[in-house]
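Worked example 3. Consider a protein that binds aspartic acid.
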Amino acid sequence: MTLKNAICMAAAMLCLNVAQAQEFPGNRPVSAVVPFAAGGPTDKVARELAMVMSRHLGAQVIIENAGGAGGTIGARKVAQSRGDGYTVLIHHIGMSTAPALYRKLGFDPLKDFEMIGEIADVPMVLVANKALPPSSLKELVPYLKTNAKTASLANAGVGSASHLCGLLFMHAVQTELTTVPYKGTAPALTDLLGGQVNLMCDQTTNLAGQLKAGAVKTYAAMQPQRIEAFKDIPSAREEGLAGIEVKIWHAMYAPKGTPAPVVEKLSAALQAAVQDKGFRAKMAELGAEAVPAARAQPDSLRAHLGAEIAKWTPVIRAAGVYAD
Ligand code: ASP
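Given these inputs, the predicted complex is written out as structure tokens:
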């Protein structure tokens, strides 16, 4: 190929990319990968968001669940997808803990994605099957020390929010429990209700129905103050355990190389969605909080992700936990 031909071809490709970006989304649906099981907390935030975002984007946003390995399988899948805007990732705090937990992660959260923006913050609650004897966190701690060999703690795999929360809890009470990983906390909750596992740290977006029905035993809200929607649950701090607070933030990403105008369109639709009254009310009902529009933006997500990686990496290194 002559140099002239190569330049012409490169220019034509560029024009094609610009044209495609201008047309985005056209009449094609956008696939939003949720790296956990259907029906769980990340999935619930994603499905509520997808409905509202579809209206603002002018194209359907379809949820695709790709669970496993604490959310890293789905995230890697999106990192390796075409950066055309038709595949995005909806993930949570796990984006910032995975680099410290996985030595062979296969993607770099900061380098292999275009940031679109944050979505919502969700609190966590330590819950158990109703048959577990202790009736408060103060009673639970000595009970677990005596029953460490038999007590089990469910999570959604190494790198999930439930794993991080469980890790902080076990570290605080200086007791190692048997952990049972699932593809998401939806199947884990089913087993907890059935009595196959004892305990779990989970997001209110998954637990809301069970909390309202009194179907699980609640020990503590894993945040400094009580949760607005579930005021009867004491905070871990009130029960004497400080330093185990964890707020689960969710965000949207596109594969690296997604054209800037496409990222802008996705981010604009996300900003409109987080300001939507119905979406905000739905999140509040589930104990969560939709972020303000200023956080549903690429620059603020990049800064937040970087700060969260810097926050959690030393905590995880100190715990000496690795997934691989
Ligand atoms: N968000 C949950 C967790 O990390 C997993 C899920 O969405 O099912 O524990």
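Take a moment to read the result before moving on. The first helix runs from residue 3 to 23. The chain has two domains: 27-120+249-319, 123-221.
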